[in-house]
Design brief:
This protein is of the alpha+beta class. Helices cover about 40% and strands about 20% of the residues. It has helices at about 30-40, 80-85, 110-115, 185-195, 225-260, 260-270, 275-305, 320-355, 355-360, 370-405, 410-415, 425-430, 430-440, 480-485, 505-515; strands spanning about 15-20, 25-30, 30, 45-55, 55-60, 70-80, 90-95, 105-110, 125-130, 135-145, 160-165, 175-180, 200-205, 210-220, 310, 315-320, 460-465, 470-475. About 15% of the residues are buried.
Amino acid sequence: FITDFDRDLPHYNQIARVQWINGTGATISMQVERGKNMIAAHITGIESVGMITYPETKQYVIHPEEQDEGLFKINTVIINEGFIKITSSEWIEKDSSALFRLPNSAILTRSGAERLFGKQSPLGETITTDEEDNSTIYTIVGVVEDLPRNNSFSPFHKFDLYICLDENMPDDLWAQTLIMRTPGISWDELNNRLKAVQALEVIPPERGGAIFYPEARKIAVSRVSLEYFIQFGLLTIIGFLILLSGLINFFSICIGTFYNRTKELSLQKGLGAGKNGIFFLLFIESTIIVICAAITAIILTELFGSFFTINLSASVKFDIDMQTLILQEFQYFPGLIILNAIIAFFMSFRLKRMAIATGVRGGNASGSKHRMRNFLLSFQFFISLVFLGSTAIIHLQQLTFTKRLLSTLSKEEKQRIFEVNLDHPQLKENKEVILSRIKAGRGTEDILQSTSELFGPASVSYLQVTENEKLTLFNMEFSQNFVSFLNLPLTSINTKTHSNSIMLNKELYDRLENEKNTGIIV
């Protein structure tokens, strides 16, 4: 399910994201304006251009007829008509005269419509953003089928609401631009046409200059690529090892029990039991255990499934869909039954070829037992060591990170720092008020604001330093008093003020200076 990212989209192999890159491979995020310019360019070979902003969870008030108002948290995104075409989303109902034509119009997904309005048609209903200063009323003009949950636009979460992109919306919204190519044209040919039509000068010549060109990068990532392995392959291996460890635990007991019963089964063979009889005896016994385990697993899934979450990274967290989870449990069930049949067949075949006298001694001339079970337990122990070692490495990395981040503070200063999380939906609206109250408190010396936890996961970006080498950067966003709050010594500083600025640690700064001096990067 995870490794089939975006592969359920009908035109998966024809879809690409447009990224803006320069000669060193660096990329920048773009706004709605560039997507509109691409639509206006009418580039041959592009069948459709889609735009989608980054998803947000907002609070809306709905006003259904003959019902009380309701306040809902809704997963929202802004799209254009091309996004619907590119994803081949099916319309359940729509008002064609209003779609992407009337201002402040919106589209509900199937799951969003069912959650907000139940079985009644939502067409013509209105929802209002729950904002004190700038509330907007949106009219529902359509209902569209849900995207697959394993999509890259809202990873593992279902969209509830699409807001239709119209002329009244600002062009400076940050958005992804998608294209669907015309069949018969290659990606290289299409990218040559894109570069010939559009270029963007981001940094002026007096500051070094940087020209960025659009490049279509297909969403069909090769399953054997390093990028794919980092994103999904590693997670798949971890999941597989966990599952394998559980299976080994069960089958080692199962096989060990069968081996322990070699004397008993050999005596039954001596009394006339055939290979088929022994096979069905062992198979039915183990299958009953698997059935009981499956029923227990489904019950536990229903009871505790709502608490299952997975963090893929600092920005990707998803709740496991109950229907998908139970469906996959049912898919595993036949596989376990087949494994039981293989083990039972192996034991019955082994007993058929074994002399009765050997079986009564325990299965071999020496009378030793449990070799197979010991092998399985040894393999399970190896898996445990892998997880234990990985956990230790991650823990030591976290300790190193924390030590380096706070290395400029004394022990007494560290003890006076504590974190307050104001990102809860109930607190966001009153964040500024809460901050002002904390600042006014007699026990507050200074406040450092951050978009992430001080010791929590950081967002990740990449810097292309050479044609074949890419640096992984861990980013943390803080307020401007970051240096003074943590008593950081500044090696050098740019006195010019910029609206967007970053600070580098000395290790990265020295690395970039070295690359610059050798002429590898600008």
